[in-house]
Design brief:
Layout: H1 10-15, H2 23-56, H3 58-65, H4 69-76, H5 78-97, H6 100-118, H7 124-138, H8 141-152, H9 159-189, H10 191-194, H11 198-220, H12 233-236, H13 238-247, H14 249-281, H15 285-293, H16 296-313, H17 321-339, H18 346-360, H19 362-374, H20 380-396, H21 398-407, H22 416-453
Helix pairs in contact: 2-8, 2-9, 2-11, 2-14, 4-5, 4-7, 4-21, 5-7, 5-20, 6-7, 6-8, 6-11, 9-11, 9-15, 9-16, 14-15, 14-20, 14-21, 14-22, 16-17, 16-18, 16-19, 17-18, 17-19, 17-22, 19-20, 21-22
Amino acid sequence: MAPCERGGGYAERILIEPCSTDARTMHVKVARAWYVVGILTLIYAISFVDRFILALLAEPVGRELQLGDGQMGILLGAGFAIVYALAGLPAAQLIDQRERRKIVTLGVSLWSAGTVISAFADGFAMLATCRASVALGEAVLTPAAISLIADLFPAHKRALPMSVYASMSGLMTIGSFVIGGATLGIATSLEAQIGLSPWRGTLLIVGFPGLLLALLFFLTVREPLRSGGPATIEDTAFSAFLRYLSAKWRFYLPFYLGSALLVMYAYANLAWLPTLLVRAHGADPATAGYLIGLTLPAAMFGIFFFPWLSTRLDRAGEGTGIVKAFLIASIAGAPFLILAPLAGTTTTLLLGVSGGMICLATTGSLGPLAMQAFGPSRMRARLMALSLLCTSMLGFAIGPTAVGLLSTQWQGDPMSLGRGLSVLGMVAGPGAILCFALALRGTRQMLTANNAIG
């Protein structure tokens, strides 16, 4: 039987060699494709544990290594985000040119080894180096996963596997603290046997699964054949990309900035909330992880609610539903961002954080949808990379660092981190509202111009 010619994707070349309508053959093809999605999703999930585990351990790490809040803020924010952001575009270029299976394996191994080695850190410099290796390794995963999934499924069947993969962003942003809290409890019980303080044991435990998954991925996943025709020079030229951004800046500039402001607060909140619970509300680090996990349903609700809302808003056919949903989320969320960190009781704090999480979840769900809806097909990857660059540099890098520095204005006050988060919320909330209002106006102008050309 002759080999399949259509599509040239993974399903045709690797999963099933001959053309066949046999149900069993098709089942094997789909099963193997979903296996790759499953293992990528699992790797994505553990990447969040490695990324956020230091936030849960900030108090004992800072105490043992004699690090101030400013130094911890750098480790939780800029020390990770700058490397992650700057590595993203070169990593994406490499992923487009080389074998993705090997690049993913190398990336997962690098960040997992960095987490394991950080268990033996003796000061700020060594811990910063380990955090940089975690950032460098994690920078390859999502670009590679998006590329692989696109070649595993035809275009009309990619939505579900991409949704499964992307859902880990909302689930594990909070779920990582639950897993981290449980792991810290295990490490505490094993302190006498392994001879390491609980925070060091925790880093060892959470780092090793990534090394095993990297090996499993390398041994069981085969590189799919890339689909799609070759791009023209005009499509891929960076000068054409810059001309496009220049022509559409009234939408992209405020949209990117608004997204970055929300991410800035979201990461600052996640980075410092465990320590705030410990200092101001009397929780131990393990309990803080479980308490943060209680806000997970709110985040998951936001991830699915606002895309649904955007489609409802678009029923009139205007095409601005995504930006309107962002604007509504910013208006609804601003009071929570400002007031929740100042709550006097743990219950009130968690309720306020949950309200904020519903609105902050828009960045993970609506952001990629906006790039798909408004960006030309040959520029969507670069538009998404630029979005990640902005949110990483402005959001992840500045947010935790700013709160750590702001908290020094209230030295000795158990609520110092809460006050710092509140001040940041006074910037992020109203700033995002203004940005998305401007982006909405820019969207209407862009769509009007596109319709006129059409």
